[in-house]
Structures are given as structure tokens and as C-alpha cells.
Amino acid sequence: MLGSLQSDLNRLGVQTVAKGVCGACKKPIVGQVVTAMGKTWHPEHFVCTHCQDEIGSKNFFERDGAPYCESDYHSLFSPRCHYCNGPILDKVVTALDKTWHPEHFFCAQCGDFFGPEGFHEKDGKAFCRKDYFDTFAPKCGGCSRAILENYISALNALWHPECFVCRECYTPFVNGSFFDHEGLPYCEAHYHERRGSLCSGCQHPITGRCITAMGRKFHPEHFVCAFCLKQLNKGTFKEQQDKPYCHTCFHKLFS
């Protein structure tokens, strides 16, 4: 048909010159021509390799010597976002051996974008510093917050150094010496107070012999008559208003 058209035009005095050979059909091109990828094409033959739509003057991409429309090229060959699985057309974040749209790379816990401190990885997921340590770092036995730096290991738990104190008076332990009561650390005085082993007379711990009287405990030398202060023996005293008296003082004062 093309040869006949050229002959007819030539008979009418219209000179036709082939503008090249079409890269698709390999036939001469007379009329409109598309020049792309170092070749010439009939406009209707310069089509997307995948969808076969005519490319015309639209943008296209070349891969392995074949043209693709923008949509198909990105769909077939652009990196995919791990979050949305959509093609990445512009800026890309590469992390955790995956690619991401910048707007889709955020903390797996709170959804915030990562600041200058970057991110921490756990089980293939990215976490901001706060959520990573809140979720995965060991917790302090005192305040239950995450331990990020120095710690003390005691009583089958980890502690911030500033949290490892007497659970009653919050006093730090001298030379690291403490007393364990029900899994918690106490200073000596409050340990004995919790155990009920403080002397009711001097308020100091009882570590040796002990007298139990009036529902309390005493060092033997501190279990004395409330009036004459003579030492008493268990079973040889009288009680008045929660105080112990020897028999002599009791009769003198209350008989």
C-alpha cells in the first residue's frame, strides 16, 4: 500500500522521501515519524511493550532496548515499598534490607517518624528509641522503667543504681550491704521492723536473745520496769496501760 501511495504521489508531482525504517515493522516511514532510542518509528508502532498502548509524545522508559509507558515501567521494574507494596517513583528509604516510601517508614509501635537518633530494629521491624527500650529493654525492679545504661543486679532483678535503695526510707545502701525481705531490699532497721524483730525498748535490731512480751519483742536488758527501770524477766511482771512493771512498783503505784 505504501509503495502504491508513493507512486501515486510521484505521478501527481509530489516528491516523497522515506524518513527512515520503522523499528517495529521494518518498513519505510513516510509522514509523521517518532524518533526514540536511536531508531525511527511509525507513531502507531511506537507502543508500550507491556500494554501495547501508543506512547506518542508521552514520557516513556527504556529497559533492555524496549520502550515502556511510565505506569507499566514502575509497576514492573520500580522498587516496591515494603509497607504499601506500591511502586516507589521518587525518593526511597532503604532499611532492614527493604525499600520504603519515606512517608511509610515509621515506628512500628507509635507510628512517629524517626528523628536524628535513627531507629532500632527488632524482629524485622523498626522502632523509635523510646518505644524500643520501653518494649524490649529490661525493666528496673524499683521503678519498672527501662534500663538504658548502668544497672545493679540483685534479688533476681535489675535496678537503676538510684532505684536500689531501702524500700521503706529510700536510703542508699552503704558499701552495697542490704537485707532481703520478700524479694525487696531494706536497710537493717527497716528489715527488722518488717520482720517484727526491732527491740521495743531501744528500736534497734535484735540479733541475739530476745524476750517476747505484751505482743512485742525486747533485748533482755531493755525489758525493764517502767518505773524503777530494773530488768524484768518474762512472767515476773505486771502490765498496766501497755507498760511493764515489777511487782513491787505495780503494787506501790496501782494497789
Automatic annotation (TrEMBL):
It comes from the Eukaryota. It is found in: Cell junction, Focal adhesion; Cytoplasm, Cytoskeleton. Residues 20-79, 80-137, 138-197, 198-255 form the LIM zinc-binding domain. The keyword DNA-binding does not apply. One of its GO terms (molecular function) is metal ion binding. The keyword Transcription does not apply. GO terms for cellular component: cytoskeleton; focal adhesion. SUPFAM superfamilies: Glucocorticoid receptor-like (DNA-binding domain) (SSF57716). Its main location: other. GO terms for biological process: endothelial cell migration; substrate adhesion-dependent cell spreading; transforming growth factor beta receptor signaling pathway. Keywords: Cell junction, Cytoplasm, Cytoskeleton, LIM domain, Metal-binding, Phosphoprotein, Repeat, Zinc. PANTHER family: PAXILLIN, PAXILLIN-RELATED. This is Paxillin a. It comes from Neogobius melanostomus.
